[in-house]
Structure formats: C-alpha cells, structure tokens
Design a protein that fits this description.
It is built from 11 helices and 13 strands. By secondary structure, it is α/β, with parallel strands linked by helices. It folds into 2 domains: 112 residues, Aspartate Aminotransferase, domain 1, CATH 3.90.1150; 221 residues, Aspartate Aminotransferase, domain 2. The strands form 3 sheets. The chain has a 7-stranded mixed sheet, with helices on both faces. Strands 9-10-13-12 form a 4-stranded antiparallel sheet, with helices on one face. It has a two-stranded parallel ribbon with strand order 1-11. The longest helix has 21 residues. The model has no long low-confidence stretch (mean pLDDT 96). Bound molecules: 4'-deoxy-4'-aminopyridoxal-5'-phosphate. The site of 4'-deoxy-4'-aminopyridoxal-5'-phosphate has 12 residues, from helix 3.
Length: 361
C-alpha cells in the first residue's frame, strides 16, 4: 500500500478530545438537560421539516434564527453569529484572534477544549490557575498580566466547567478594562446561574459572549450555539467560519426553540432545585467534599475517585465524569443534575460504593 506522509507537526503527540460517552442507564456525565424538548415544540419542528427543500443550501448566516436571537437578547442582528455548536465557535475564536505569535490567557481548571484549540492554531497558552476550593480567578493577577499588553484572547468561563462557579460581573468588568484583548465569556451554563455579561456589551468592543442550545435549551443532539459581540468583532468571524456551518434543520429547530423559550423555563427551575438537593445529599456523605455550583452540574471530591467512577458505572450503570485526570483536580468527579429519579439513583449508588470501598481499606 502506498504510504501517506506525516500529518501536520502540530498534531504530533496530540490526544483527540474524548467525551467518554458510554451507554448507561443513568447518564449524568455530559451536562445535557435531563428533559426532552416539549412535545408542542417537537410538533412545530416536524411540521416545518416536512416542507423543507433539502436540495437547497441553507441560509449561510441563519438570518431568521439570528433575528430571533437578537430580539431575545435586545441586541442587533449584526451582533449575533450562529455556529455548529459552541465548539465550532470556540475553534473560530482561535482562528480569528489566535495563531502563531499570539497568546491566550486561560484560567484552569476549566474546559479543556480551549487549550486544544490553542495548540491546533499555534496559540501560546498563558495559564493563571484558579484558587483551589473556591475556584475563583485571581483578578488582580490577571489584570497585572494583561497590563503587559501581549495577550490577544482571554477565555473566562462563567459558570466554569468543571468547577461550577460563576465569575462576578464586576470581576469581568475589571478584566475587560485591563486590556484590549478579546475577552470571551463562555456562558454555556449561564441560564443556570451567575449574571450574564450581555449587559456590558454597549461599553466594551472587546467583549464576546458564547451561548449554546445544548444545555438549558435541551438540544445537545443538534449542534447549535451562538456568539454575541460587537458588530466589528462578528465581521471578523464571518471571514473564518465555514459558510454553511448551521444546517437547515438546525436553523428550524433553533427558531422554534427560541420562539417557545418560555416552555424551557421549568426545566431550568427543576435543574436548580435538583442541584440544591444533590448538594445537600452529597454534603451528608462522609469524606465527600462538595463544591458550590451555579451550573447544571456539581463537582465533588472523594477518596479513590477513579475506582468510585468505575464502580458507579459497572455495578450501577451510573455514568458521571471523571475529571481527576486534571492535575489540579485530584480525586474529583463531576455529576450532571438529572431528573429526581436519576439523582436518587446516583446518590444511592454513590453511598453504596463509598461504604464498600471505605470498608475494604
Ligand atoms: N463551553 C463549555 C464550557 C462547555 O462545557 C461546552 C460543552 N461541553 C461548550 C462550550 C460547547 O457546547 P456545544 O458545542 O454543545 O454548544
């Protein structure tokens, strides 16, 4: 067989992102919504798909959906850009503002995709670790570092994944004031807690906000996310994005979901209620440390986390996320808030596993 030459040098030694999905009965590992899209929204989507012209390309910029998103958030159409999931837009950020000789300021532990995108685009990563336990960013240090003037992108996740905590709006404002770097506030979990930075948009050209339909809006199965920012910033993204990245079906689904968004509020209320209950139950288990959360998931620390993760999966068919591979998060696991039933199954399984692993040592 004819051999192929090496792939790009930037891929040497790289490990592909692995969401560690496994078929399980109680799936609490990916921070999806516990609830399906309401029936009436599904029916409206189905009606529109029936008459869709599949032989035509979709509207490249998803203008119908953009319009609805703009109205929803009180901004102009020119301030919105839709993408193939938040993930695609996160990549576009590194293509548009990163690259060789460029730097991103990152606050680990956080979503690992930022560092992967930096690596792929040759962007240098400057890490300022969060405070252990509270997982707050050190705003003074960040401003000091930004004052050097060489940072091109700042990535601030609020609420942060996997730690769960949101960053105060005043802290975000200080970061925005500290330089002219493009500050991405990733609000993928923003509907569950924390204050949105959208209110700051009028004052900061360097502010960019990311939202997704995957969490509060129950659409992880289609790929749909959007950026909100200054029109001058959105224009730069139009240069790097894939022309038809949001397919026609996703545009229809997005439009119907935004139009019926009030129907999704109950799921958000339930997730917050489930979160409070789960936190109280986890706090009640000996040798478990629970971290505060503004998101639809909770991070906690327990002895022998890898083994606990494995037993939850193998013996109880409960899948949570093992985040203990991050050197800053030894023995930490992350659980998504599920339905009341799923939450109980998880707590019961965890109690059983910890009682047994504890007594075997
Ligand atoms: N940002 C954060 C912090 C996330 O956790 C995720 C999903 N895991 C995303 C962005 C991307 O979400 P999606 O591609 O589903 O829109």
């Amino acid at each position: 067989m004819r051999q192929v030459r090496q792939s790009a040098p930037s891929l040497v030694g790289m490990v592909p992102y692995d969401p560690k999905y496994m078929k399980t009965e109680t799936l609490l590992s990916a921070n999806e919504s516990a609830y399906p899209v309401p029936d009436e929204v599904r029916a409206a989507i189905q009606r529109r798909i029936e008459t869709l012209d599949f032989h035509r390309y979709p509207d490249p910029l998803a203008n119908g959906l953009r319009q609805l998103i703009a109205q929803w958030h009180g901004v102009k159409v020119a301030n919105v850009l839709c993408g193939n999931g938040g993930d695609e837009l996160l990549f576009d950020i590194f293509v548009a503002w990163g690259g060789p000789q460029r730097k991103v300021l990152n606050f680990p532990p956080t979503f690992s995709v930022y560092e992967t995108n930096a690596e792929l685009t040759g962007t240098q990563v400057v890490n300022l670790p969060r405070e252990e336990g509270t997982w707050r960013i050190d705003v003074d240090k960040a401003c000091e570092r930004l004052a050097q003037g060489d940072i091109d992108i700042v990535v601030l996740t609020s609420p942060n994944n996997p730690t769960g905590n949101a960053t105060a709006l005043e802290d975000i404002r200080r970061i925005l004031d500290a330089s002219d770097a493009l500050v991405l506030v990733d609000e993928a979990y923003g509907e569950f807690g924390g204050q949105s930075a959208i209110s700051l948009l009028d004052e900061y050209e360097n502010l960019l906000i990311l939202h997704t339909f995957s969490k509060a809006y129950r659409c992880a199965g289609i790929r749909l996310g959007y950026l909100i920012g200054a029109s001058s910033v959105i224009t730069e993204f139009k240069k790097v994005r894939q022309p038809y990245s949001v397919d026609a079906i996703s545009q229809i689904i997005g439009e119907e979901v935004v139009s019926a968004r009030a129907l999704f509020d109950e799921g958000i209320v339930q997730a917050k209620k489930g979160r409070a209950e789960l936190i109280a139950q986890l706090e009640d288990i000996p040798n478990v440390t629970v971290y505060a959360s503004d998101a639809n998931f909770i991070m906690f620390k327990t002895q022998f986390a890898m083994r606990v993760w494995q037993e939850l999966n193998e013996r109880f068919s409960v899948l949570v996320r093992d985040v203990s591979g991050d050197p800053r998060l030894p023995d930490c696991l992350r659980v998504t808030v599920g339905t009341t039933e799923e939450n109980s199954r998880f707590i019961e399984a965890l109690r059983a596993v910890l009682t047994e692993t504890g007594s075997q040592r």
